[in-house]
C-alpha cells in the first residue's frame, strides 16, 4: 500500500479523471458501493442507520452508501449537514440518484437536534468530511462530532474519521472516534501518525479502480507488509557456514548497564548473525557471558564503569557494527564513539547513547562513505534535530525524510508505526508490533535484529524493514498466545523470534 497526502490523493484522482477519462461519478459510485458492502457485513437490516453527510465528495460517498443500503432493504436515515446549494458536481448527482431511488433526506435545523437523531439510531455512518477539510472545524460539524463521540453507537467512517487531518502538522483537532474506517484507495498519512491512528479504529482499504499509472512512481511512502517480507527475506543456504552470515561487532554497555548489549547480541544471533562479538567494559564481561554463551568478547578499558577513550579497538575484521546501547553519555565514551563511527568502513548502526554522542557532531555521519543506520525513538529524533518531541510527533514523515536526505543515512524512526527512511527519500512504515514493545530493552533487541539483517543478502532498506517487521511480529505472536501487552519483556521477544522465522522458512 502507498501512503498518501491529501494533495497526492487529489493528484491521483485528477490523473484518473483527466488523463484516463474516468468519470468522477463512477469513482464515487465505486467508493460508496465498496463501503456499503462492508457496512452490510457489519450491520443487520433490523438496525437503524444514520448517515451523516457533508457538502463535499465525502458526503457524496455517503449518498451512494445510503442508496446502496436502501436498495438492499435497509432503511437508512440521511441527515444532510450542509445547505442544499453547497452540494455540487458528483455529490449532487448521487444525491439526486438517492432521491430517485426512493430515499428521503433530512436537514439539521439546529445543532442540538443531533442528539435526537443519535438517540434513535444503532449505527452512525460518518460521511461528513474527508480529505478536503481545511482549518478549524466550523459549526455544526464541531458539535455534531462531539455528540457522536459521546454516544455509544457503532460508528463507521468513510475514508477518514471526520475532523481528523489527512496530513502531518495538525496536533489539535476534534475528530470522530470511529470503530471502523474504510479508507478509499490508499491510506492517508494520518493513519500512521501517532496522534491520529486511534481515531481510525479498525481500518482497512477499499479499492475504487483508480488506474495504476496514476501513481507512476510519485508516491515514495509505502507500508511494509508480510508479503514483502516473504519476497525479500533471504533463505539460509544449505552450504553456508558461520562466516557467510556475517561477523557483527556490538560496542556498548557499561558497569551500570550490562544487560543492553547482551540483549542486542542474543537477538542478533537469534535473527541469524553468523558470529557476534561484544566489545564492552571488561568488568561487565563475566555477567554478560553467562547470559550469552554464543558470543565472543572484546574487553575494553573503562573509566568509572564506562568505556574510556584512550584505547585502540580493532574493527577491521567485522562486516557490520552496532554501537551505542547502554554505553552512557560520558564525554570520553562520546569521543571514542565518534572516532569509531568515522573510521569504520562497514555499515554502522547507531542506537541509544550512541545517538546522543553523534548528535554532538553530525558531520561524523554525513562524511561516512559506508551505510549509516540511525535508530532513534521520537525523543532521540528530537535530540538529533534539536527540536521538540511535539514537533516530531506532528511531522515524523517529513522530518525523517529530510534528515535522511541531508545526512545520507538510513533512519529507523521507532514508534507505534516505525518509519524506515533511505537517503533518497523513500519511506516504509512497519505494520507489526503492539504496546507490549513500549518497554526498556525493546530498542536493544531491535538493534540486534537489524544488525543481523544488515549482514544478510538483502538491500539495506529491505533488511531494515524486514527487521522491524520481524521484531513487531514476534511481539504480536507472543501477546496472542503466551503473554499480554502488560507482561511482555524484551527478552521474551528474543525467544519469540523463532515463531516468526519458522513461518518464513
Ligand atoms: N480519492 C478519490 O479519488 C475519491 C475521493 N472521494 C471522496 O472525496 C473526498 C474528498 O472530497 P472533497 O475534496 O470534496 O472534500 P471533503 O472532504 O468532502 O470536504 C470538503 C467540504 O468540507 C467543508 N469543509 C472544509 N473544511 C471545513 C471545516 N474546517 N469545517 C467545516 N467544513 C469544512 C467544505 O465546505 P465549505 O468550505 O464549502 O463550506 C467542503 O465542501 C474524499 O475524502 C473521499 O471521501 C470519493 O468520492 C471517490 C473518489
Ligand atoms: K468521513
UniProtKB/TrEMBL annotation:
<keyword id="KW-0630">Potassium</keyword>
<dbReference type="GO" id="GO:0052856">
    <property type="term" value="F:NAD(P)HX epimerase activity"/>
</dbReference>
<feature type="binding site">
    <location>
        <begin position="414"/>
        <end position="418"/>
    </location>
    <ligand>
        <name>AMP</name>
    </ligand>
</feature>
<keyword id="KW-0520">NAD</keyword>
<dbReference type="GO" id="GO:0046872">
    <property type="term" value="F:metal ion binding"/>
</dbReference>
<feature type="binding site">
    <location>
        <position position="58"/>
    </location>
    <ligand>
        <name>K(+)</name>
    </ligand>
</feature>
<feature type="binding site">
    <location>
        <position position="444"/>
    </location>
    <ligand>
        <name>(6S)-NADPHX</name>
    </ligand>
</feature>
<keyword id="KW-0456">Lyase</keyword>
<keyword id="KW-0067">ATP-binding</keyword>
<feature type="domain" description="YjeF N-terminal">
    <location>
        <begin position="9"/>
        <end position="216"/>
    </location>
</feature>
<feature type="domain" description="YjeF C-terminal">
    <location>
        <begin position="225"/>
        <end position="504"/>
    </location>
</feature>
<comment type="similarity">
    <text>Belongs to the NnrD/CARKD family.</text>
</comment>
<feature type="binding site">
    <location>
        <begin position="57"/>
        <end position="61"/>
    </location>
    <ligand>
        <name>(6S)-NADPHX</name>
    </ligand>
</feature>
<keyword id="KW-0521">NADP</keyword>
<dbReference type="InterPro" id="IPR030677">
    <property type="entry name" value="Nnr"/>
</dbReference>
<feature type="binding site">
    <location>
        <position position="159"/>
    </location>
    <ligand>
        <name>(6S)-NADPHX</name>
    </ligand>
</feature>
<comment type="function">
    <text>Catalyzes the epimerization of the S- and R-forms of NAD(P)HX, a damaged form of NAD(P)H that is a result of enzymatic or heat-dependent hydration. This is a prerequisite for the S-specific NAD(P)H-hydrate dehydratase to allow the repair of both epimers of NAD(P)HX.</text>
</comment>
<dbReference type="Pfam" id="PF03853">
    <property type="entry name" value="YjeF_N"/>
</dbReference>
<dbReference type="InterPro" id="IPR017953">
    <property type="entry name" value="Carbohydrate_kinase_pred_CS"/>
</dbReference>
<feature type="binding site">
    <location>
        <position position="162"/>
    </location>
    <ligand>
        <name>K(+)</name>
    </ligand>
</feature>
<dbReference type="GO" id="GO:0046496">
    <property type="term" value="P:nicotinamide nucleotide metabolic process"/>
</dbReference>
<dbReference type="Pfam" id="PF01256">
    <property type="entry name" value="Carb_kinase"/>
</dbReference>
<comment type="similarity">
    <text>Belongs to the NnrE/AIBP family.</text>
</comment>
<dbReference type="InterPro" id="IPR004443">
    <property type="entry name" value="YjeF_N_dom"/>
</dbReference>
<dbReference type="GO" id="GO:0005524">
    <property type="term" value="F:ATP binding"/>
</dbReference>
<feature type="binding site">
    <location>
        <position position="126"/>
    </location>
    <ligand>
        <name>K(+)</name>
    </ligand>
</feature>
<keyword id="KW-0413">Isomerase</keyword>
<feature type="binding site">
    <location>
        <position position="443"/>
    </location>
    <ligand>
        <name>AMP</name>
    </ligand>
</feature>
<dbReference type="GO" id="GO:0110051">
    <property type="term" value="P:metabolite repair"/>
</dbReference>
<keyword id="KW-0547">Nucleotide-binding</keyword>
<keyword id="KW-0511">Multifunctional enzyme</keyword>
<protein>
    <recommendedName>
        <fullName>Bifunctional NAD(P)H-hydrate repair enzyme</fullName>
        <ecNumber>4.2.1.136</ecNumber>
        <ecNumber>5.1.99.6</ecNumber>
    </recommendedName>
</protein>
<keyword id="KW-0479">Metal-binding</keyword>
<feature type="binding site">
    <location>
        <position position="377"/>
    </location>
    <ligand>
        <name>(6S)-NADPHX</name>
    </ligand>
</feature>
<comment type="function">
    <text>Bifunctional enzyme that catalyzes the epimerization of the S- and R-forms of NAD(P)HX and the dehydration of the S-form of NAD(P)HX at the expense of ADP, which is converted to AMP. This allows the repair of both epimers of NAD(P)HX, a damaged form of NAD(P)H that is a result of enzymatic or heat-dependent hydration.</text>
</comment>
<dbReference type="InterPro" id="IPR000631">
    <property type="entry name" value="CARKD"/>
</dbReference>
<feature type="binding site">
    <location>
        <position position="326"/>
    </location>
    <ligand>
        <name>(6S)-NADPHX</name>
    </ligand>
</feature>
<feature type="binding site">
    <location>
        <begin position="130"/>
        <end position="136"/>
    </location>
    <ligand>
        <name>(6S)-NADPHX</name>
    </ligand>
</feature>
<dbReference type="InterPro" id="IPR029056">
    <property type="entry name" value="Ribokinase-like"/>
</dbReference>
<comment type="subunit">
    <text>Homotetramer.</text>
</comment>
<dbReference type="InterPro" id="IPR036652">
    <property type="entry name" value="YjeF_N_dom_sf"/>
</dbReference>
<dbReference type="GO" id="GO:0052855">
    <property type="term" value="F:ADP-dependent NAD(P)H-hydrate dehydratase activity"/>
</dbReference>
Amino acid at each position: 500500500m502507498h501512503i498518501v497526502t491529501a494533495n497526492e490523493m487529489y493528484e491521483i484522482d485528477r490523473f484518473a479523471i483527466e488523463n484516463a477519462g474516468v468519470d468522477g461519478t463512477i469513482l464515487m459510485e465505486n467508493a460508496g458501493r465498496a463501503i456499503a458492502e462492508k457496512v452490510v457485513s457489519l450491520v443487520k437490516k433490523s438496525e437503524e442507520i444514520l448517515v451523516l453527510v457533508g457538502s463535499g465528495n465525502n458526503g457524496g460517498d455517503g449518498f451512494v452508501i445510503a442508496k446502496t443500503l436502501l436498495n438492499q432493504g435497509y432503511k437508512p436515515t440521511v441527515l444532510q449537514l450542509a445547505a442544499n446549494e453547497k452540494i455540487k458536481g458528483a455529490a449532487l448527482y448521487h444525491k439526486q440518484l438517492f432521491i430517485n431511488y426512493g430515499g428521503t433526506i433530512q436537514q439539521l435545523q439546529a445543532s442540538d437536534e443531533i442528539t435526537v437523531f443519535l438517540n434513535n439510531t444503532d449505527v452512525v455512518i460518518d460521511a461528513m468530511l474527508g480529505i478536503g477539510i481545511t482549518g478549524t472545524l466550523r459549526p455544526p460539524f464541531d458539535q455534531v462530532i462531539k455528540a457522536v463521540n459521546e454516544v455509544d453507537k457503532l460508528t463507521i467512517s468513510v475514508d477518514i474519521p471526520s475532523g481528523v487531518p489527512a496530513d502531518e502538522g495538525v496536533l489539535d483537532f476534534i475528530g470522530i472516534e470511529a470503530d471502523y474506517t474504510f479508507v478509499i484507495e490508499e491510506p492517508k498519512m494520518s493513519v500512521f501518525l501517532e496522534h491520529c491512528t486511534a481515531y481510525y479504529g479498525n481500518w482497512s482499504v477499499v479499492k475504487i479502480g483508480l488506474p495504476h499509472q496514476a501513481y507512476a512512481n510519485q508516491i515514495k511512502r509505502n507500508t511494509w507488509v508480510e508479503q514483502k517480507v516473504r519476497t525479500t527475506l533471504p533463505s539460509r543456504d544449505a552450504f553456508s557456514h558461520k562466516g557467510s552470515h556475517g561477523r557483527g561487532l556490538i560496542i556498548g554497555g557499561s558497569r551500570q548497564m550490562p544487560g543492553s548489549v547482551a540483549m542486542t547480541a542474543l537477538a542478533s544471533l537469534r535473527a541469524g548473525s553468523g558470529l557476534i562479538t561484544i566489545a564492552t567494559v571488561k568488568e561487565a564481561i563475566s555477567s554478560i557471558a553467562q547470559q550469552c554463551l554464543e558470543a565472543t568478547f572484546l574487553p575494553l578499558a573503562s573509566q568509572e564503569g564506562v568505556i574510556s577513550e584512550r584505547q585502540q579497538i580493532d574493527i577491521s575484521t567485522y562486516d557490520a557494527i552496532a554501537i551505542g546501547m547502554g554505553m552512557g553519555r560520558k564525554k570520553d565514551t562520546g569521543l571514542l564513539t565518534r572516532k569509531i563511527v568515522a573510521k569504520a568502513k562497514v555499515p554502522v548502526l547507531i542506537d541509544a547513547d550512541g545517538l546522543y554522542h553523534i548528535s554532538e557532531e553530525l558531520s561524523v555521519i554525513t562524511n561516512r562513505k559506508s551505510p549509516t543506520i540511525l535508530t532513534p525513538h521520537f525523543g532521540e529524533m528530537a535530540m538529533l534535530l534539536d527540536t521538540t518531541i511535539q514537533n516530531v510527533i506532528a511531522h515524523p514523515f517529513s522530518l525523517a525524510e529530510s534528515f535522511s536526505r541531508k545526512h545520507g543515512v538510513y533512519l529507523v524512526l521507532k514508534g507505534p508505526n516505525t518509519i524506515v527512511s533511505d537517503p533518497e527519500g523513500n519511506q516504509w512504515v512497519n505494520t507489526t508490533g503492539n504496546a507490549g514493545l513500549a518497554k526498556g530493552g525493546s530498542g536493544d533487541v531491535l538493534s540486534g535484529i537489524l544488525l543481523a539483517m544488515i549482514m544478510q543478502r538483502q538491500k539495506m532498506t529491505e533488511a531494515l524493514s524486514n527487521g522491524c517487521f520481524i521484531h513487531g511480529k514476534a511481539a504480536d505472536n507472543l501477546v496472542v498466545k503466551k503473554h499480554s501487552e502488560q507482561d511482555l519483556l524484551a527478552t521474551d521477544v528474543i525467544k519469540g523470534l523463532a515463531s516468526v522465522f519458522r513461518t518464513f522458512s
